[in-house]
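Mods, move this if it's the wrong board.
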Amino acid sequence: MTGAIVFDLDGTLVDSAPDIAAAANRMLDEIDHAPLPVPLLRSFIGHGIPRLVGQVIAHLELDPASQGGLTQRMLAQYSRHPADLTRPYPGVPAALERLRDAGHRLGICTNKHHGLSVQVLDALDLSRFFDVVIGGDSLPQKKPDPAPLRTAFAAVDAAPLVYVGDSEVDAQTAQAAVLPFGLYSGGYRTTPIEALPHSFSFDDYRMLAAKVAEFACRREG
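Not the wrong board. Structure tokens:
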């Protein structure tokens, strides 16, 4: 059984935390503030840059009215260096190749802005695998609202098979959209695997094609 597989981006296909953290800390440097640790900033990833900036403001007890200006500063910093340090997780390109060769149609649904997502995918030579990229600014709604994920599957124009992500936000989105969820356990989640609803999980992209095939067989059965 072949079908549409939609992926999250940050923490799922690519480890983008180093570039996102660097952009956040360059933003803080612009306002003469000390940098924040990368692990802390990684924990803020998942809801898009505006929400991340809001979490930085709350953590540092800065003026909430500064969020709009600081968001623009961070977007500017990040757009200049979106993929200097970002890398695909090991085995990602080969896994995507195998899924495409098996007849699956692939898409992206992320809370990262669409333009930034395309920049990262292009820089890492991953754009060629995907029929659609839905970003956090593609619709009025963002994940975990189900609308972006449903839009991505509709645009891929194949029977939905599974949504693959790494985080609590992704699990909530799949639940809200009533779609199967494949959990990549090597990403940015903080919740134990067993506490997140999922159809299957994997920690190595060399396993993904087999996991998808096994899941598809179970669904057919």
